[in-house]
Amino acid sequence: MNIALIAHDVKKEELVNLVIAYRDVFSQHTLFATGATGYKIAEETQLGVVRLRSGPLGGDQQIGALVAQNEIDAVIFLRDPLVALAHEPDVSALLRLCDVQCVPVATNLATAELLVKSLERHDLAWRNIVHRYRLERRSGTEG
Ligand SMILES: O=C(CO)COP(=O)(O)O
């Protein structure tokens, strides 16, 4: 599964702690992250992370584009709920695209933990089954 991890500055430590606590689960997936979040996760957990641009410089939009292409299976986005950010429209757009594509998205630590536990139980495996089925159908019609 492709998991996107994003945290605003005041939430980065929470997210890193979550990844440390559930390292065994996260290590079984491909992790994508915005720039500074990805840097911290990689540094503190030694897990591989596909790092995109920093959030304010377009990283949220890059993750949004992956969501729009249905290439992300779950998003954990720990937002700072107490400040308004210059790139708020990018944040809203990403969350909207998660709803468009029916991608599970957690915006606080409590929900993030539930999502990780779902990953652990393979609750989202149906997404891989659908991906594979569609790829096979596509290659069948092309061949
Ligand atoms: O601002 C962000 C998401 O909106 C996070 O970006 P960074 O991971 O680069 O700090």
TrEMBL record:
UniProt: substrate binding residues: 8, 12, 34-37, 54-55, 87
Active-site residues, record numbering mapped to chain: 60 (proton donor/acceptor)
Record field: catalytic activity: dihydroxyacetone phosphate = methylglyoxal + phosphate
One MF annotation (Gene Ontology) recorded for this entry: methylglyoxal synthase activity
EC id: 4.2.3.3
Top enzyme class: lyase
Record GO biological process: methylglyoxal biosynthetic process
Keywords in alphabetical order: Lyase
Domain MGS-like, chain residue ranges per copy: 1-143
GO cellular component: cytosol
Cross-referenced NCBIfam families: MGSA (TIGR00160), PRK05234.1 (NF003559)
Family of the protein in this entry: Belongs to the methylglyoxal synthase family.
Described purpose of this protein according to its UniProt entry: Catalyzes the formation of methylglyoxal from dihydroxyacetone phosphate.
The protein's name in its UniProt record: Methylglyoxal synthase
